[in-house]
Design brief:
This protein has a domain of 104 residues: Chitinase A, domain 3, CATH 3.10.50. Helix content is 30%, strand content 24%. It has three helices and six strands. Strands 1-2-5-6-3-4 form a six-stranded antiparallel sheet, with helices on one face. A hairpin with a 5-residue loop joins strand 1 and strand 2. The longest helix is centred in the first third of the chain and has 27 residues. The radius of gyration is 27 Å and the shape is globular.
Length: 171
C-alpha cells in the first residue's frame, strides 16, 4: 500500500469513527403521566370485554344453549355421544371445521388425531374435548386467548381471532 493510500485509509477510518459517534438525544420521562403498565392492562381489559360482547351476541343470534368453562370456552353440544368421556392425555380422533365470528370459513373438513392436554391445536379445544364424550357433536367457541392469541397460526388465523369449531369427537 502506498503512503498516500495508507494516509487516505487512516483519515477515512478516523472520520467515520468520530463522525458517526453522536450522543443519543436525552429523553426525559414525564414526572407525572400515565403508567404504561396500567394503560396496557386497560387496553387488554377493553379487548377482552369487547370480545366477550361479540361472543355473547353470536350465541344469542344462534340461540345456542351453551355451557362455559372457567377459561371462557363455550360448548353447545347438540348431539351427546354414547361413548366414554374424553380424558386428559387421551389420543382422540376428531373432525372439525373452523369459522370466525362473521361466519367465514377458516378451515373446513379437518380430520385430526389430538392428544388431549397437549394444546394442539389449541388449549381451548382441549378444554372443550374434556367436556365431551366419544361420538359427541358440538359447536365450540374459543376466545382468542385460548386459541392462537396475539400471533395467529401463521397461516389463515390472524391475531386475536375468536374461533368457532364445528366439532365431532369420533367414536
Amino acid at each position: 500500500m502506498t503512503k498516500l493510500a495508507h494516509t487516505f485509509f487512516c483519515v477515512a477510518i478516523l472520520s467515520f469513527a468520530f463522525g458517526c459517534h453522536r450522543q443519543p438525544p436525552v429523553v426525559n420521562a414525564p414526572e407525572e403521566g400515565p403508567d404504561i403498565t396500567q394503560n396496557l392492562a386497560n387496553a387488554n381489559r377493553y379487548i377482552v370485554e369487547s370480545e366477550e360482547t361479540q361472543i355473547n351476541a353470536y350465541v344469542e343470534r344462534r340461540q345456542w344453549n351453551v355451557r362455559q368453562t372457567q377459561t371462557g370456552v363455550r360448548i353447545s353440544e347438540y348431539q351427546v355421544g354414547n361413548g366414554k368421556k374424553v380424558e386428559w392425555d387421551e389420543q382422540v380422533a376428531v373432525e372439525y371445521s373452523v369459522y370466525d365470528l362473521t361466519g367465514a370459513v377458516i378451515y373446513a373438513g379437518v380430520k385430526d388425531t389430538v392428544v388431549v392436554g397437549r394444546r394442539k391445536p389449541t388449549a381451548g379445544l382441549d378444554a372443550a374435548l374434556l367436556q365431551l364424550h366419544h361420538g359427541s357433536k358440538a359447536h365450540v367457541i374459543v376466545p382468542s386467548n385460548e386459541a392462537y392469541g396475539m400471533i395467529g397460526d401463521g397461516d389463515r388465523i390472524t391475531n386475536r381471532k375468536v374461533l368457532i369449531y364445528e366439532l365431532t369427537v369420533c367414536s
